[in-house]
Write a structure and sequence with these properties.
- The protein is of the alpha+beta class and about 450 residues long.
- The chain folds into 2 domains: about 150 residues, no CATH class; about 180 residues, Heat Shock Protein 90, CATH 3.30.565.10.
- Helices cover about 70% and strands about 10% of the residues.
- The strands form 2 sheets. A 5-stranded mixed β-sheet has the order 2-4-5-7-6, with helices on one face.
- Strand 4 and strand 5 form a beta hairpin.
- The protein starts with a helix and ends with a helix.
- About 0% of the residues have low confidence.
Length: about 450
């Protein structure tokens, strides 16, 4: 037992012993005072420590965050059975051993049933408070842990995305300089023209690389300009065919995706006037396809694979739609998902988190309502029992509110801890699945 809990139970024992000694004890002697302290300490430590140990044990074996329904059922069964045993033990020690007010036979014949029932309700009140406190602490820890995890995930995703975008600058510049160096030897005049055009294109790279998505129209315009530069160098050895639907122009792709794929086509394939490299850019369903006839060039140095890998990873961070790659003996094709709207990753995650938070908030309200109901039951029913026994002991009426409220409390617990909701949720899923099946 923790020192803090031990001190708390000592103070509770002292307070209750002082109350019972000065209010209910006729002979105020030192012997009676010590007896009252001993009895109060017994009740405090046996019931308080017993329920505390049960709660701690269940927290370790069945945490609220991992098995809420299972934990609730086990908690109800364990606290009911444990408190009945502990209360009967405490009352037996009090009335039979300490006070010697009854014999063992008299105690178990039913003479002390009302007192036992009253004490059981008090014990259940203590236990309900401990379990509710444990649940709220567990919920608080879980919420903090989830917030930290989500922040780490968001930071990691942002860092990864920034890293991917920062690859574009040196990658584009390196490849463009390679083309320029080739043109300087082959055609100096074309090299000058290429330099002027490259500055225009590089400006687009600088403007667009920090964006998550750009319109298909902007990307196509840039790709066409870039194709003109490639045409300047390769002339009739390379041919470009654009066949993108007009309705796809206002949709979105990741920036510089076409430029990176065009680079790959040139880099990995040979192109001659007798065997030209034909690159097609066209729409297909909800994708933008970049296809070239396969004329594999022998590579002295193995490719780093930055271009295609960069595109795949950026799409993975922005959407659940995949980049598809098709390769045969005759052609190589990459299918880029075309998005109807800009999917903001942070917004999507935030919406999911908001929905999860709303569900968790609703769940907490339901649980707080149940525990409030349980605590009220444990307070009011014992009060009604005492009132009934004091005012009209021969006319026992407290059974009716105790039974009626108890049935309502059990029903409330069943609904809160999903004993009845699982069937309802299962039925809803079945209906939705049938509706989706008929739609398809």
């Amino acid at each position: 037992m923790k020192r803090k809990n031990f001190i708390t139970l000592c103070w509770i024992s002292l307070a209750t012993s002082m109350f019972f000694f000065f209010v209910f004890t006729d002979e105020k002697t030192l012997e009676n005072f010590m007896l009252t302290i001993a009895i109060s300490s017994m009740y405090s430590f046996v019931l308080g420590a017993g329920n505390g140990l049960i709660n701690d044990f269940l927290n370790k074996k069945f945490p609220w965050s991992e098995a809420t329904t299972k934990r609730a059922v086990i908690s109800i069964v364990s606290i009911l059975s444990a408190n009945i045993i502990l209360v009967y033990f405490c009352n037996y020690m009090n009335f039979v051993v300490f006070q010697k007010a009854a014999t063992t036979e008299e105690y178990f014949t039913g003479k002390y049933n009302y007192i036992n029932w009253f004490t059981i309700n008090i014990a259940l009140l203590i236990s309900a408070f401990l379990h509710a406190k444990g649940f709220m602490e567990e919920l608080k820890k879980t919420s903090k842990k989830e917030v930290v995890e989500q922040k780490l995930i968001a930071k990691s995703a942002n860092a990864q995305f920034e890293s991917l975008k920062n690859q574009l600058d040196p990658h584009f510049l390196f490849n463009s300089l390679n083309v320029l160096s080739s043109l300087i030897d082959e055609n100096p005049r074309q090299a000058q023209k290429f330099t002027a055009s490259m500055s225009k294109i590089y400006r687009y790279v600088l403007e667009q690389k920090d964006k998550e998505l750009v319109t298909v129209e902007d990307e196509l315009e840039f790709a066409k300009t870039y194709c003109e530069l490639l045409k300047t160098r390769f002339e009739d050895s390379v041919d470009f065919i654009f066949d993108v639907k007009k309705e796809d122009y206002r949709r979105f792709v990741v920036p510089l995706s076409l430029q990176l794929l065009l680079e790959n086509c040139i880099k990995h394939n040979f192109a001659t006037s007798s065997k030209p490299l034909i690159i097609k850019i066209y729409s297909e369903n909800d994708t933008l396809c970049i296809e070239n006839n396969l004329q594999v060039r022998e590579q002295i140095k193995e490719s780093s694979g930055i271009g295609l890998a960069n595109i795949v990873q950026r799409y993975a961070l922005l959407t659940k739609k995949n980049v598809f790659i098709e390769k045969s003996e005759d052609y190589f094709k990459v299918k880029l998902p075309v998005l109807s709207a800009k999917p903001n990753v942070v917004t999507e995650k935030t919406n999911d988190e908001d929905q999860a938070y709303e569900r968790a908030q609703k769940r907490v309200k339901e649980l707080k309502s149940f525990y409030g109901n349980l605590i009220s039951y444990c307070i009011i029913i014992p009060f009604l029992i005492i009132l009934n026994l004091i005012t009209s002991p021969r006319n026992i009426w407290f059974y009716w509110p105790m039974l009626g409220w108890g049935i309502g409390l059990v029903a409330h617990g069943m609904s809160v801890f999903a004993i009845g909701k699982s069937w309802e949720e299962k039925k809803i899923r079945e209906i939705l699945e049938k509706q989706n099946h008929f739609k398809n």
